[in-house]
Amino acid sequence: MWPVFNILEGKEVTDVTKEILAPKTVYKPDTPYSLGVKVDAGKLLFIAGQTPCDVNGNTVGIGDATAQTTQALENLKIVLKEGGATLDDVTLLKVYMTRHEDIPQVVEVRREYFPKDYPAVTLCVISSLARKEWLIEIEAIAVVSQ
User: Fold this and answer.
1) pLDDT, one tens digit for every residue, the chain (146 residues)
2) What is the DSSP letter of 88?
3) Helix, strand, coil abundance in the chain, percent, nearest 5
4) Other Cβ atoms within 10 Å of 61 Cβ, number
5) Best CATH choice for the domain 13-143 from the list 3.40.50.970, 3.30.1330.40, 3.30.230.20, 3.10.180.10
6) Greatest distance between any 2 Cα atoms in the chain
7) Is beta strand 44-50 parallel, antiparallel or unpaired with respect to 36-39?
8) Could you tell me the residue ranges of all domains in the chain?
9) pTM for this model (two decimals)
10) Which long-range contacts (CB under 8 A, 24 or more apart) does 35-43 make?
11) For 75, phi and psi rounded to 5 degrees?
């Protein structure tokens, strides 16, 4: 484990805890990643890429960027809640898309979920995601309220 430092006091933090988040209402494929990781050494919450899957692992809205973005953001909300956070606590979103032409729909849905105090966002258009029918995947970092 790497040492963690309190940058305000310049001291090493020795009581770092990490909690793996695995809400039962978000589909988790059998691959090596966590839906979320809550780190108490700074109250940061790291959320793995949320996909357009329902709780049973079925892709929602095949071919529909609006429906897929909505599902991914609903999954994100569930994992955030499991970690004691809300969308208001999100500081960074990373959005991976497979179709450039879907950007306006994705931005519009994001605007509904983040109406003010927008998180920082990285948006990448890539050739494909883990399932060929996925158009979007969204990961996040949040600062958990005390």
Assistant:
1) 445 555 545 555 556 677 888 899 999 877 666 788 787 766 889 999 999 999 999 999 999 999 999 999 999 999 999 999 999 999 899 999 999 999 999 999 999 999 888 899 999 999 999 999 999 999 999 988 66
2) G
3) 25, 30, 45
4) 16
5) 3.30.1330.40
6) 51
7) antiparallel
8) 13-143
9) 0.80
10) 35/79, 35/82, 36/79, 36/80, 36/82, 36/83, 38/83, 38/84, 38/144, 40/15, 40/16, 41/4, 41/13, 41/15, 41/16, 41/17, 42/4, 43/143, 43/144, 43/145, 43/146
11) -60, -40
**Which amino acid appears at position 93 of this protein?**
L
The residue type at 34: S
E runs forming strands in 65-134:
90-97, 120-125
